[in-house]
Amino acid sequence: MLIRDATNLLDIWRSQVKLIYVAGPLFNTHERWYLDRIAEALEAAGYRTFLPQRDAGLVKPSSYEERYRIFHADIEALKACDLCVALLTGSDHDSGTTIFG
Q1: How does pLDDT run across 39-70, given as a tens digit for each residue?
Q2: Can you tell me the distance from the alpha carbon of 83 to that of 44, in angstroms, rounded to the nearest whole number?
Q3: Cα 86 vs. chain centroid, distance in angstroms?
Q4: How many domains does the chain have?
Q5: CATH classification at residue 90
Q6: Angle, CA of 9, 17 and 44, to the nearest 5°
Q7: DSSP three-state, residue 2
Q8: How far, in Å, are 9, 60, 90, 95 from residue 22 at the CA level?
Q9: Which end of the chain is more exposed for a tag (fewer CB within 10 A), N or C?
Q10: Which domain holds residue 63?
């Protein structure tokens, strides 16, 4: 396929990206709110996203089975995604987020 311009290249790239994993710290409401906005922007641009707190759940003091389910849902989403967008803030990036890079 001949690529005629940057728009054509972007269209080709978009057609290849089916799922984007949105990674970032989930420690407080503000961080989760920010990740929600990132997912919304990507979805408004036509992408499907996996947002851990929305699609797998948050790890709270819960049963082993629930933590296991959330962990494996995240891992399966990472395996299935075509791209990972990570929110890296501050001078000390969240270790749980940077592991994805």
Answers
A1: 999 999 889 999 988 998 877 767 888 888 88
A2: 16
A3: 7
A4: 1
A5: 3.40.50.450
A6: 90
A7: coil
A8: 23, 20, 18, 15
A9: N
A10: 16-98
